[in-house]
Amino acid sequence: MKNVYHNDLMEMLLQSGRTGMNVRQLARRLYNIHNDIFDSDIDYRQLYNQVRFYLYYQSRQRHSPFLHLHRGQYALRQDVAVQLDIFIDTPREEEEPPSKYTKRDDSRQLLLF
User: What's the confidence (pLDDT) of residue 92?
Assistant: First the structure.
């Protein structure tokens, strides 16, 4: 079961650390992230219930990343690995392209004079 807000929940709980966050705080932050002045299709009550039931169900699963601490408080398990987005093929801006004329490293030669 994958929730629409799964990635946002993971990010918020990762930032909160071991103390975790309350469902009310999580729902409020999600509501503020996904709701704006021009697009207010999200109902807070539905969002709150969706987050509450999702976290409750997931925390009961054996391989879930979510951990139920106490009444309405959730955190990430300590053994959760977070996938990082690393782009290897894209060149970094600070790297300079290799020049045509490069200085050779002559450190193996003895300098007698």
Answer: 62
